[in-house]
Amino acid sequence: MMRFVTTTVLAIGLGLAAVMPAAADKLPLNEISGYLNKLKTAKGEFTQINDEGSISTGTIYIKRPGKVRFEYNAPDSGTVIAGSNTVVIYDKKSNQPAETYPLSKTPLSIILAANVNLGQAKMVTGHSYDGTATTVRAQDPAHPEYGNIELKFTGSPVELRQWIINDGNGTRTTVVLGDLQKGGSLPNSLFDVGSPGKTNR
């Protein structure tokens, strides 16, 4: 469940086409970059489909740059936090210390960057449109071995609908987003990763 970064927090037979407004055409990369750069804070519900097919739900909090929080609903009841350039996975059901990873080594760092520039050389390896949504596949140009992220957007106006993280170990994790409530204030305490060696939260 909590394999958000190494094995994750998007494809899905969830009827996305039925709930997404149709876009007029493929969204250009500069428009998508602009949307992400303007997205400073957001909150919403998400559904996560893990590589082995299990499904989790919860609430996501985004505070760009560099911060995201996934709060999983029961029965999972775990938390994944990215902040201070670190990703920490807290699993309340485990007696093991929290797992920690450098944010820079996860594909999610691409959309949490202070300045998203999808026009950067060798960052985008796929850019397609299926008649409903635009999908962009991006990677860290300097470290493609870290994996990639596939982002799905609809237009009029531009909205991020889902992402798929393909990590460096070949694991695929999908996160489908509900309607994001954008703007407003989110306290930094939501993204406090605490002590990396701390057991649970």
Briefly say what this structure is:
The chain contains three helices and twelve strands, in the order ααββββββαββββββ. It is mainly β and 201 residues long.
Description:
It is a single chain. With 201 residues, the protein is mainly beta. The protein has one domain (20-177): Lipoprotein localisation LolA/LolB/LppX (outer membrane lipoprotein receptor (LolB), chain A). Helices cover 9% and strands 38% of the residues. The chain contains three helices and twelve strands. Strands 1, 2, 3, 4, 5, 6, 7, 8, 9, 10, 11 and 12 form a twelve-stranded antiparallel beta sheet that branches. The two termini are 16 Å apart.
Number of helices: 3
Shape: globular
Instruction: From the alpha carbons, calculate the radius of gyration and give it in angstroms.
Output: 16 Å
- Number of structurally distinct domains: 1
* Rounded mean pLDDT score: 86
Percent range of helical residues:
under 10%
What is the assembly state of the chains in this entry?
single chain
In the predicted model, the low-confidence regions spanning at least 5 consecutive residues are: 1-23, 197-201
Q: Largest beta sheet, briefly? A: 12 strands, antiparallel
Overall structural class, as computed from helix and strand content, comes to: mainly beta
**CATH architecture assignment:** Clam
Order of SSEs: HHEEEEEEHEEEEEE
Number of DSSP E strands: 12
Superfamily (CATH H level) name: Lipoprotein localisation LolA/LolB/LppX
Q: N- to C-terminal separation?
A: 16 Å
